[in-house]
Amino acid sequence: MTTPISMDQLLELAKQAGDAIMEVYNSDDFGIEQKADDSPLTKADLASHQIIVEALERLTPEIPVLSEESAKIPFRPARAGTATG
Prior knowledge:
Elements: H1 7-25, E1 33-34, E2 40-41, H2 43-59
Antiparallel strand pairs: 1-2
Helix pairs in contact: 1-2
EC number: 3.1.3.7
Organism: endosymbiont of Riftia pachyptila
InterPro entries: Inositol_monophosphatase-like
């Protein structure tokens, strides 16, 4: 069974991630790096990613998180009664 998440929790999470992004954008150092595919990766990307992933893992530990900035997640077979795509 999936843990329910309230809209207030999601809004707070989005605000925290947005605050982290703005903190970087208001600084003199965006910390821009190039990813393997030659696209940019900034400190803001990493900061917001960390906040979002940590919160989602805490709020819904049974659901794996996949994002552009994350490493590959381990394969877990779908449970009976769940959508597999």
